[in-house]
C-alpha cells in the first residue's frame, strides 16, 4: 500500500515508518516539525535505504492537505500528528483542541474527497480517564484534561464519519506507555525541554543532563508505593500499527478499537532499577509530592488486540531500557539541529 504517515518524523511515527518500509509499503510523510527535527529524515533514510518523501506543512491547513491528496496516490493513512503533553494542554487548551481536532478534520475531509477509506488513528489510554486498571475497550471513555478530551472527541468524530460513510475502515489504537528505541540506536524519543515522561527523564539523569529523578509519591496503594504503568516497547507498538493496517482490509465493522499494551504494570522504582541494570550503576532519585491528576495504576487488557489483530507485545522491560540507553548514549542531546 501507499501509506501517508502524519507525524511520521515524531517518536512513534518514525519507528512505524521503518517497519512499514520493511513490510514492503510505500511511505510518504507529512509533518510540520513542530515537535521533531528534520535530521530524523536522514536517519530514517539510512535505516530504510529509501528516499522518503516528506511534506512539511501543518495539517490544520485544509488547502495544503487537499493539495497533497490531489497530487499523490494514497491507499491508507496512519494519523500520529498531534500535540501530546498533558500538562501543557491544561495551560494551552485552545491550541490543543485547534491542533488535534483541526488536523483530523482536514485529513478526514481530504480522505473523503479523494476516496481514501483506510485510517489508523493514535488514541491513548487517557480516554479511560481515571479508570485505567485492566482497562478493556468496552469501558466508557472520558478524560481529565484537554489532551485527553481531544482523543475522546477525535474517536467520536471518527465513529460518526464511519456512520455517515460505511465504506470507511478505521482502527482506533489506544496506546499505553511507549518507551524504548530502535535497536540500531539511531532513532528514539527526543523530548524538547524537560521530559514529561518517566523513562526519557531517567535516561537524561543517566547521561548526566539531569541531576536526579523526582519520584512523584511513594504512598500509592501499590507494592512499593509508587505508581504503576503499562510500558510498551515502541517497536511492539509500531508492529501493532502494521497489524491494524492489515486488519482494515478484512473488517466487517467500519470501526475497530484496540488497546496496545502488555497487560503488565511496572512501578516507577521497578523501572528505575531496570534502567540501572541497563546502565550498570545506581541512579539518584528523590521522592517528592504526588503530581495532581496522576492515577495509582494503569495497565491494559490487551486480549482483544491479541485475538483480533494477531498481535502481541513481546519485548521486556529490560529490552526497553537497554534500547533506550543505547539511543541516549549515542545521542546524548537528541537529534542534531
Ligand atoms: N508518546 C506517548 O506516550 C503517547 C501515548 C498515547 C498516545 N500518543 C499519541 O501518539 C501520537 C504520536 O505520539 P508521539 O509520541 O510520536 O509524539 P511526537 O510529538 O513525537 O510526534 C507527533 C508528530 O506530529 C507532528 N505534528 C503535530 N501537530 C501537527 C500538525 N498540526 N501538522 C503536522 N504535523 C504535526 C509533530 O511535529 C511530531 O513530529 C500522538 O497523537 C500522541 O497523542 C502518544
Could you give the topology of this structure?
Layout: E1 2-6, H1 11-22, E2 26-30, H2 39-48, E3 54-55, H3 62-71, E4 76-79, H4 86-91, H5 93-113, E5 118-124, H6 146-164, E6 169-175, E7 177-179, H7 198-206, E8 213-216, E9 228-229, E10 231-233, H8 234-248, E11 255-260, E12 266-267, H9 268-279, E13 285-288, H10 303-308, H11 317-330
Parallel strand pairs: 1-2, 1-4, 2-3, 4-5, 5-6, 6-11, 7-10, 8-13
Antiparallel strand pairs: 9-12
Helix pairs in contact: 1-2, 1-8, 3-5, 5-6, 7-9, 7-11, 9-11
The structure holds nicotinamide-adenine-dinucleotide (NAD).
Residues 7, 9-13, 30-36, 58-60, 80-84, 99, 103, 122, 124, 175, 177-178 line the site of nicotinamide-adenine-dinucleotide.
CATH topology of one domain: Rossmann fold
Cα radius of gyration in angstroms: 19 Å
Number of strands: 13
CATH architecture of one domain: 3-Layer(aba) Sandwich
CATH class of one domain: Alpha Beta
**What form results from the Cα inertia axes?**
globular
Distance between the termini: 32 Å
The sequence of SSEs as H and E is EHEHEHEHHEHEEHEEEHEEHEHH
Attached small molecules: nicotinamide-adenine-dinucleotide
Counted by DSSP, the helix tally is: 11
Class by alpha and beta content: alpha/beta
Key structural traits:
UDP-glucose 4-epimerase activity, 11 helices, EC 5.1.3.2, isomerase, seven-stranded parallel sheet, two-stranded parallel ribbon, 337 residues, single chain, binds nicotinamide-adenine-dinucleotide, 40% helix
Plain-language structure description:
With 337 residues, the protein is of the alpha/beta class. The chain has a domain at 2-179 and 232-261: NAD(P)-binding Rossmann-like Domain (Rossmann fold, 3-Layer(aba) Sandwich). It is 40% helix and 16% strand. The protein contains eleven helices and 13 strands. The protein has helices at residues 11-22, 39-48, 62-71, 86-91, 93-113, 146-164, 198-206, 234-248, 268-279, 303-308, 317-330; strands at 2-6, 26-30, 54-55, 76-79, 118-124, 169-175, 177-179, 213-216, 228-229, 231-233, 255-260, 266-267, 285-288. The strands form four sheets. Strands 3-2-1-4-5-6-11 form a seven-stranded parallel beta sheet, sandwiched between helices. It has a two-stranded parallel sheet with strand order 7-10. The protein is globular. The protein starts with a strand and ends in a 7-residue tail after the last helix. The mean pLDDT is 97. It holds the Pfam family Epimerase. Belongs to the NAD(P)-dependent epimerase/dehydratase family. Pathway: Carbohydrate metabolism; galactose metabolism. Homodimer.
Amino acid at each position: 500500500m501507499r501509506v501517508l504517515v502524519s507525524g511520521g518524523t515524531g517518536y512513534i511515527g518514525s519507528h512505524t515508518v521503518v517497519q512499514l518500509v520493511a513490510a514492503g509499503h510505500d511511505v510518504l510523510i507529512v509533518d510540520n516539525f513542530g515537535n521533531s527535527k528534520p535530521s530524523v529524515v536522514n536517519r530514517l533514510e539510512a535505516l530504510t535505504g529509501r528516499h522518503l518523501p516528506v511534506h512539511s506543512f501543518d495539517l490544520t491547513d485544509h488547502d495544503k492537505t487537499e493539495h497533497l491528496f490531489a497530487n499523490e496516490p494514497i491507499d491508507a493513512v496512519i494519523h500520529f500528528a498531534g500535540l501530546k503533553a498533558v500538562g501543557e494542554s491544561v495551560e494551552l487548551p485552545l491550541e490543543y483542541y485547534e491542533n488535534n481536532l483541526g488536523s483530523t478534520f482536514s485529513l478526514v475531509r481530504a480522505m473523503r474527497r479523494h476516496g481514501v477509506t483506510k485510517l489508523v488513528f493514535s488514541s491513548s489510554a487517557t480516554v479511560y480517564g481515571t479508570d485505567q486498571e485492566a482497562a478493556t475497550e468496552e469501558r466508557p471513555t472520558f478524560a481529565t484534561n484537554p489532551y485527553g478530551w481531544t482523543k475522546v472527541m477525535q474517536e467520536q468524530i471518527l465513529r460518526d464519519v464511519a456512520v455517515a460513510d460505511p465504506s470507511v475502515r478505521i482502527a482506533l489504537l489506544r496506546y499505553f506507555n511507549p518507551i524504548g528505541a530502535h535497536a540500531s540506536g539511531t532513532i528514539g524519543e527526543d523530548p524538547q525541554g524537560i521530559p514529561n515522561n518517566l523513562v526519557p527523564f531517567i535516561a537524561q539523569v543517566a547521561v548526566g543532563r539531569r541531576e536526579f529523578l523526582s519520584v512523584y509519591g511513594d504512598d500509592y496503594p501499590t507494592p512499593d508505593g509508587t505508581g504503576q504503568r503499562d510500558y510498551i516497547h515502541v517497536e511492539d507498538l509500531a508492529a501493532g500499527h502494521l497489524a491494524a493496517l492489515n486488519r482494515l482490509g478484512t473488517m466487517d465493522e467500519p470501526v475497530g478499537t484496540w488497546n496496545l499494551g502488555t497487560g503488565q504494570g511496572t512501578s516507577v522504582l521497578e523501572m528505575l532499577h531496570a534502567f540501572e541494570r541497563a546502565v550498570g550503576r545506581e541512579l539518584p532519585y528523590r521522592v517528592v509530592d504526588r503530581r495532581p491528576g496522576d492515577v495509582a495504576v494503569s495497565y491494559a487488557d490487551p486480549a482483544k488486540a491479541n485475538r483480533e489483530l494477531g498481535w502481541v507485545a513481546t519485548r521486556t522491560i529490560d529490552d526497553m531500557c537497554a534500547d533506550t540507553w543505547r539511543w541516549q548514549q549515542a545521542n546524548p542531546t537528541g537529534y542534531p539541529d
